[in-house]
Amino acid sequence: MPKTAIILGATGLVGGKLLDLLLKDDRYITLKIFSRSSCKITDPKIEEHLGDLFDMEQFAEEFTADVVFCCVGTTKAKTPNKETYRKIDYGIPVAATKLAKQNNISTFEVISAMGANPDSSTFYNKVKGEMERDVLAEGVANTYILQPSLIGGDRNEKRFGERMAQFFMGVFGFLIPKQYKVIEPETIAQAMLQIAEKGYKDNQIQIPSDKIKEIADT
User: Fold this and answer.
1) Which residues contact 91 (CB under 8 A, 6 or more apart)?
2) Per-residue pLDDT tens for 157-178?
3) Distance CA 86, CA 162 (A)
4) Which phi and psi angles does 141 have, rounded to 5°?
5) How many CA atoms lie within 13 A of 114 on its CB side?
6) 117-135 residue pLDDT tens
7) % helix / strand / coil in the chain, to the nearest 5?
8) Do 92 and 70 contact (CB within 8 A), yes or no?
9) Which of 6, 47, 45 is nearest to 26 (CA)?
């Protein structure tokens, strides 16, 4: 049966790769993109809904699909203000989950991060952990939280420290445990699509970076 997907964060690093995959996938006939700015792609599959993602309720009527892919996220460098960072990395996914539950969407996938923990003393890990906790609390039937390590690819706002981390992980990758290795955005996008179609065999809700790669490779 033809499917409809919602993508949040389609103009971002992982979301853009996922959009490319979905445009080529005949199983999906409608791709609803909710964003503050256009993805600037013209395709009959794409249905754009532009507006303020801090007010997800404005999209309640249009927020219907078979699956939600939540790829929204920012970085400390791009969003140094902690209140705004929290609105993006916590507020948007949690509000989207509420709409998914309200509109009987059965599958919700969201990108979190390795180290997410609501009890963490580190602000960024704590925000991700609280997001995971409150997304799961909504009880969408098939909820999957992906916890990638450092994501590769090109970001205009990437910090010097992130570039150096990627360099050393590349050079000394053979010494680094699998779950800590750099993971490419294409890999995460491929895994999200696989999970939407097949679920996850381990019936695991929180999926670490090494497992994300395994899923993408199947």
Assistant:
1) 54
2) 454 555 554 444 555 454 455 5
3) 21
4) -50, -50
5) 15
6) 999 999 999 999 999 999 9
7) 45, 20, 40
8) yes
9) 45
Q: Given pLDDT bands bounded at 50, 70 and 90, which one contains residue 213? A: very high
Rounded to an integer, what distance in angstroms lies between the CA atom of residue 188 and that of residue 168?
21
Using DSSP, how many helices (H) and how many strands (E) does the chain show? 7, 7
Backbone angles phi, psi at 177, to 5 degrees: -55, 150
Burial tier of 110 (Cβ tally within 10 Å: 0-12, 13-18, 19+)? buried
Q: What are phi and psi of 139, to 5 degrees?
A: 75, 30
Listed in sequence order, the residues at least 6 apart from 61 whose beta carbon sits closer than 8 Å to its beta carbon are: none
**pTM score over 0.70:** yes
DSSP result, 69-128: EE-----TTT---HHHHHIIIIIHHHHHHHHHHHTT--EEEEE--TT--TT-SSHHHHHH
Domains of the chain from N-terminus onward: 3-151+183-213 (3.40.50.720)
Check the CA dihedral 124-176-12-63 and report its sign.
Answer: negative
| In the predicted structure, residue 29 carries a pLDDT above the cut 50 | yes
Residue 167: which residues within 8 A CB-CB, separation 6 or more? none
